[in-house]
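## Example record

The block below lists the input lines for one assembly entry, exactly as stored, with component labels intact.
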Amino acid sequence: MQEARYRIEVFYKTDDPRGNVIAKKLNSLGYPVQKVFLSNNYLINADIAAEEAERIARMLVQPVVESYSVNLPYKPERFAFAVEIGFLPGVTDNVSHTVRESIEDLLKRELDREKSVFSSVTYYLDGDIDLDRAVEIGRELYNPLIQRIKILSKNDYTGDSGMGRAVPVVSIAEHPSADTVSLDVPDEELMAIAREGIADSDGTRRGPLALDMLSMHVIRDYFNEKEKREPTDVELESIAQTWSEHCKHTIFAAEMDDVREGIYRRYIKEATMRIRREKGDRDFCVSVFEDNSGGIAFDEEYIVSDKVETHNSPSALDPFGGSITGIVGVNRDAMGFGMAARPVANRYGFCFADPRDERPLYRGRDASTRLLSPRRILEGVVHGVNVGGNTSGIPTPQGFLYFDRRYKGKPLVFVGTVGLLPRKINGKSAVGKKAMPGDNIIMAGGRVGRDGIHGATFSSEALSSGSPATAVQIGDPITQKKMSDAIVKEARDLGLYSSITDNGAGGLSCSVAEMAREAGGFIVDLEKVPLKYPGLSPWQIWVSESQERMTLSVPGHRTGEFLDLMKKRGVEATVIGTFTDSGRGIVRLRGEAIFDLDLDFLHNGLPRKKLLTSAPRAPKPHPDFACPSDLTANFLEMIGRLNTSSFEFISTQYDHEVQGNSAVKPLQGKGRINGNASVIRPILSSKKGVVLSQGLYPSYSDIDPYSMAACSIDTAVRNAICAGASLDMLAILDNFCWCDSNNPERLGELKRAAEACYDTAVAFGTPFISGKDSMFNDFKGFDENFNPASISIPPTLLVSSIGVMENVELAQTIDFKREGDFIYVLGTTRSEWGGSEYLAFIGESATGSPYIGDRCPSVKPDEFMKTYRALELAVREQIVSSAMSVERGGLALALAKSAMAGMLGAEIELPSVPVSSDMRADMMLFSESQGRIVVTVAPDAATRFEQLCRAIPHAQIGKVSGGRHFLVKDAAGTTVVDATIDSMLKKHKSIFANY
Amino acid sequence: MPMTRPKAIVLTGYGINCDDETRFAMEYSGADARIIHVNDLIENRKKLRESQIFIFPGGFSYGDDTGSGKALANRIKNNLLEDLYEFIERDTLMLGICNGFQVMANIGVVPGFHGKTGEAQIALEHNSSFRYQCRWVDLAVEKGCPSVFLRGIRSLHIPVAHGEGKFYAPPDVLERMKSLNLVTMRYRLPDGAPARGEFPYNPNGSMEDIASICDTTGRVMGMMPHPERGMFFTQRDDWTLLREDYRSRDEKLPEESDGMAIFKNAVTYFI
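Predicted structure tokens for the full assembly:
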């Protein structure tokens, strides 16, 4: 292996704060580590003189607290083992890029981009540990899919030359040409090509195309009949990307039972079209379902866009890499909206298994295929969005955590971005972009490597041992930030390009082909595409999902100016081809066509599936248990469960104040309680605000997927109204995450959920503006005893809401504000606790498994809307002093959170709660009936408030007290809950106290 | 009205990300503020000579790779150091916020004890929690500190958002800073008592609760908290609670909040 000329190690000469935290963390996991020392290491492999290497080292050191050595291993005073972690060859190493740029700036000469600088970190572990323990600790610190590890005992480290200087250069056997693939083969071979990939000359398969047999036949016939030749691998891979479930949403597009046009057209798109028709002049949609994000009117001058994506499969393998590329990827959906919107807020939502579950799962039959534990996945995913969002300077105010044991095989990672775009740029509509024939095709941002190959096709399949490690991607937010600033803040307003889209799933193969629909054709010269390292096959270059890239169409006479600007901003941009109007997409390699397809076939040739559904399963039995006489213990348990607990540790590590736009924050009140909606003020000179919220109830899917979907919409809408939004200016986004979607029963559930989406959205007048689905969230592998195991997620629908409010000064938060304020509940409490958090808790306590129950909450839009309209008025008249939507955990949770947020007590009379029928105290407290809101009102405003509420179910159920006691009395006048705010806060914040 | 508005440069590039709101704060306060890319400034240094106020805004320059502020400080040191010293020698103002403070610390212009060497004298290390902290803090302005930016201000309620803000100075440097009154702000408890290192009031473990320092002229200051994120009433974390008081007194809500005073002081200096 090649050795670098210099190895610079940088280490603390004072106490290293990082080491203390890492040692504490390892202690909490049971490792007897006394102290951890660290060194940051830089391998420099370039023609550099020794004196220059010293200068470089001095540049890399913070001289007040750090010191360095060149080609001399750092030796902390005490340690047993040294563990070095760096990246595998070819994996993006952001630190090394920065160091290379700094060296170039210092020495004023250029170094090789990929082969001159490499970074790593060494952990020196002091404590009573042996090699086995050191290996276990190493596993805690690194991810074998993307990183390399080297573990040396103190003797080996000091006796030898430390960690050595071997450089991790990529060496790939050259395969720089395209192959042809015969499709005139038996169906078994066609199936193998579809499922496992095209075979290389040595017989190994390249990874799934994820096409079904029907599609394979259509492709074979197209080449036989129209092109009269065999396809190249580039063409086949490209068609597979373009036709993937991930890109084409084949299930939502398929004919399903009697729904000829498919459930997307019938239930999602038609809902929006009908709402827009009915709203007439008050229609606020500007661009829906057509672009990378959906857009609604913000004011006379601006459009606000929104898009929510999932990044589930990559996050299962590499939680940090999966979630960071998820968030910076969806940022590009804002940049790719219209002529490029500026990202102004991020959203997130994570569904995990219990992080305390340590039982392993394996993708294959050997120990090396072990999945990361739920805790590692949680930590990695949370950290990835932290780095992606914070580094990009985009606030991340809105999010949630949800837990179910069925997310153990595949977590769900939802990430979204809100963007802001002027309605007009240089006098032209900013959403009417069009690549023109003759425009240059320019790729800007990062370079292409093997990362993310088969991402689109991979996420269209279940996670198994065949899942490709190359599907993993590493994000580089700074490269993207530089590009984003150069495009959104400069090139866009200079009018330097005619169209733009992002490189996400399918890479160039999808972005160029997509833009070619505007122009009519394209020619790309593949050798012009800048690569991270040599040796990539043409098909890999074409479908690679390497991150941080946008594709632009730039008119010839603006091309020089565009390239100059990018260069000045440190952004790499390259002309890789031309848009044409030939009707064909052509890719050449050194002049020779290796891809030459009819664009119409590429985009529209995919045969539509016909799918049949079967009725969803029968509901579960009603669990039978008595209502305890003292509910205090249950109450305290209920406010501190995984699904009800504070996730303050996330809110404080995600910068939600950057851009200065935060108005309603993720943590509310003196008690710092997670709210369920956020408000931003994206333009500082305007008082207008954007309200963001979310709703999600996977547990209801077990009983009734229709209600599950309706409740998700109702919650996302109600939460936004509580924060100050209006039904007149509220839109929603759908993210379906389903499982086992070849199973008619699962499709039956999907159809019911889609029907609910139509009915509920139309009733509320809240149009869908964008959506995305992920249909195969299943795991097929082995349990801790290597017995076959398959785990499917519960059918999950995330509904995200986005509303525009006239004046952020009218926004409202969840915290009780003043002693003596009246507490009201709006809406009716019903005997609806099927799928509730309370039944899950009771079941887990009694049997170890959650109870499900038979009657989950249902949505009555006409009734609920009256409540929301009344609250809208009350908020506008400023007679409400807090508003809290009743969600998971029911009335008890809503009241508890408002009280904890305000650090004020409450006295609640349960008999006053409006109910549909007589019910026991625990049902009243924990039923999750929808359409309910807890509101506080100052006594002098109560008369007016009750007047506004006269037509809706409402009641004053108590008042805010100063005593910091939370008291609930039942019909008999007995105190059934008696807890102090301090004990509640402690319980509510306990699970993640050490995260 | 002032004769001419002072010209302010708000630096951008390579991951700086608080440039827009910082420029807005300066404009709102009466400056003629422009965002200029570091590469454009290197190409056209004249812009520095034409300006009175220079701001290193917050952000993640170079992704904090190799240590926050270090790589951008190197970029400045390799290309603009002389010009920056010339700028400071004139009767100008320089402010670094968060990542900007980290850059200024790495260039050594605060506290400015090493002349024109470009050497750091203090460090902003990883937070004691080794975790990014975005939260609101209470700050006490040190009595008698010479900072132009803090004239007339006694305390501030504004947010911090950083992973590396733990102030450290070697004992001799700290003593010298204190004898010259160069510590300008410290984290405190909401009731006004010193934070004495207590998390989260002191959010990062800073030595002696130090949040901000200046040079001996008082014209050059670095601060970890973000005044531009606390310049308006509705940016505050407690504004919906405070609103209840205004309502009960039947008063109009205020427009501004604590952070704006810093920017106004900068502009007022030139009027």
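The mean pLDDT of chain B is 96. Chain B has one domain: 7-268.
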